[in-house]
Amino acid sequence: MRIGLIADIHGNKLALDAVLAQLDHRAVDTIVCLGDVAMLGPQPAESIATLQALQIPVVMGNTDAWFFGGDQPGPETALLANWCRDQVSLEVRDFVRSFAPAINIELEDGLKLLACHATPRNFDEVISAGTSTADVMTMLNGATQDLIAGGHTHVQLLRQIYQQRFINPGSVGLPGIGPRSNDLAKNLRVDWAEFAIIDTGNGDLSIELHRTPIDLAELFEIARAANMPAFDWWTTLWKA
Fold first, then answer.
1. Which of 48, 85, 107, 228 could form a disulfide with 223 if both were Cys (CB 3.0 to 4.6 A apart)?
2. What is the pTM of this model?
3. Residues 138-175 as b or e (16 or more Cβ within 10 Å = b)
4. How many CB atoms lie within 10 A of CB 179?
5. Residue 123 belongs to what domain range?
6. Buried (b) or exposed (e) across 193-204, using 16+ Cβ within 10 A?
7. 56 phi, psi to nearest 5 deg
8. C-alpha to C-alpha distance for 54 and 166, rounded to whole angstroms
9. Pairing between strand 103-106 and 112-115?
10. Which CATH number fits the domain that encloses residue 23?
11. pLDDT tens by residue, 184-221
């Protein structure tokens, strides 16, 4: 069984299409989205519509919850979040409201996968390469699944935590920046989209972290054509 993991699309359908093409080429059986679908990018409605059309299950991310209120960190983020909210109909917002806090998936060979946005405990916490094992165990909140998948940091990660594995597929639509702790290195001059694949069966388990290139010039032109606010600030997230 081959599971595609995607996360943190952030309203970037160009990147989403590139990743979906790669997952189709690699013949995954199903795809799970770990949240943060539409906010902070030029194509919020289009990104949601793609997931709806493909019936991809989605967990609720912290920026998905911004559709229904909450403070955004910084004036540019607030301006862009309000714009993204206005691009999406009330009917589509109801679809976002239906996102689950977590998704359980039964894999082959008795393996179990728990998909969440950040950690099983909430969608705002950070698990990084430098997070202590004790802190990770606290954030896993008693989850017993063999595999835990979470995004949120926009940094790809695979960690063994005793008998469990934590997988972060990185960010589809905004891999240059995300909520980070001090030990997280920032991706620089990004021009790619990220995803992961879990492959199980016949007693084997493989976990692959992937990147696929995207055309930044085309992405920036899409944002200009959409009259997306905070454009200059947003481009720095890619160029830094």
1. 228
2. 0.95
3. ebbeebebbbbbbbbbbbbbebeeeebbbbbbbbbbbb
4. 16
5. 2-239
6. bbbbbbbbeeee
7. -85, 125
8. 26
9. antiparallel
10. 3.60.21.10
11. 456 668 899 999 999 998 889 999 999 999 999 999 99
